[in-house]
Automatic annotation (TrEMBL):
Gene3D superfamilies linked: dinb family like domain
Matching InterPro entries: DinB/YfiT-like, MST-like
Highest taxon of source: Bacteria
Protein source organism: Actinomadura chokoriensis
Pfam families found in the cross-reference section: MST
Entries under SUPFAM superfamilies matching the protein: DinB/YfiT-like putative metalloenzymes
Taxonomic lineage from the root: Bacteria, Bacillati, Actinomycetota, Actinomycetes, Streptosporangiales
Record protein name field: DinB family protein
Length: 174
């Protein structure tokens, strides 16, 4: 098991909002990787759902979600490929045949690392900067809201991946 997949759920004694939100965000990031561990490449690229998404496309999607919310949205960084997880023709999540699973995993880990840097230098009450994903001065969410949104985004997608993994090879659990 890799370091990224060994994060435990935060303790129930935590009372600090920042520690709780960041603890759960890292917990779900690690859970995502744990659920993908051991899946052969053909299963990572196979959809078992009517919507057509694949486990590898979900990983790529969440890498771009990190990029959109933290780099482009909150920090207002100029970044390439804001919507690189989407097929340009139909808007669905996609992975090109020439993209290796390890390449997408590295993209995900790199985006998570950059998100952590951004969050570490900000206060929970700080609002997203103008000029990135939030152009309007009246619609700039606070970091605490973004973190909570990200926790729910991961919780939903990790739950979906639970089902996909069980359908693929019967593996269940954390």
């Amino acid at each position: 098991m890799t370091e990224e997949t060994a994060v435990a759920e935060p303790p129930d004694t935590l009372t600090d909002n920042r520690d709780l939100l960041l603890g759960y965000l890292d917990y779900y990031r690690a859970a995502l990787l744990r659920k993908l561990d051991g899946m052969p490449d053909d299963e990572l690229r196979t959809s078992r759902l009517p919507s057509g998404w694949t486990p590898l496309a979900l990983l790529k999607h969440l890498a771009f979600v990190e990029r959109r919310w933290f780099r482009w949205g909150f920090a207002a960084e100029r970044v390439d490929e804001i919507w690189g997880d989407r097929d340009p023709d139909d808007g669905r999540w996609h992975v090109r045949p020439d993209e290796a699973a390890e390449e997408i995993r590295r993209l995900f880990l790199d985006e998570c690392a950059r998100s952590r840097e951004i969050v570490a230098s900000a206060d929970l009450r700080d609002r997203a900067r103008s000029g990135g994903g939030f152009d309007s001065s009246d619609h700039r969410p606070a970091l605490i809201w973004i973190l909570f949104h990200m926790v729910q985004e991961y919780a939903r997608h990790v739950g979906q991946l639970d089902i996909v993994r069980e359908l693929a090879d019967g593996v269940t659990g954390e």
